[in-house]
């Protein structure tokens, strides 16, 4: 299960660039939008990469 804290997100967009099937960004302020909170097994590795790349620590996997 992915969690995204939009209060922490700084809209850097690394997540959407890294895993565009899972993360999008708000057109208003660039903050993260989760397209799914339950990644498939195939998506999990790229989601983990996106979580690690996020500069604000807004993303977590649990
Ligand atoms: S990488 Fe992190 S800070 Fe950047 S848009 Fe995604 S959640 Fe927000």
TrEMBL record:
Reading the lineage from the top rank, the first entry is Bacteria
Q: Which Pfam families match?
A: Fer4_19 (PF06902)
Please give the SUPFAM superfamilies that the UniProt record associates with this protein: 4Fe-4S ferredoxins
Q: Which UniProt keywords apply?
A: 3Fe-4S, Electron transport, Iron, Iron-sulfur, Metal-binding, Transport
The coenzyme or cofactor needed here is: [3Fe-4S] cluster
* The keyword Chaperone is assigned to this record: no
- A single GO molecular function term of this UniProt record: 3 iron, 4 sulfur cluster binding
| Record-annotated Divergent 4Fe-4S mono-cluster domain positions | 2-61
Supply the InterPro entries for this chain: 3Fe4S_ferredoxin (IPR001080), Divergent_4Fe-4S_mono-cluster (IPR010693), Fe-S_cluster_ET (IPR051269)
PANTHER family registered for this protein in UniProt:
FERREDOXIN
* Protein function: Ferredoxins are iron-sulfur proteins that transfer electrons in a wide variety of metabolic reactions.
Protein name per Swiss-Prot or TrEMBL: Ferredoxin
- Which organism was this protein described from? Tamaricihabitans halophyticus
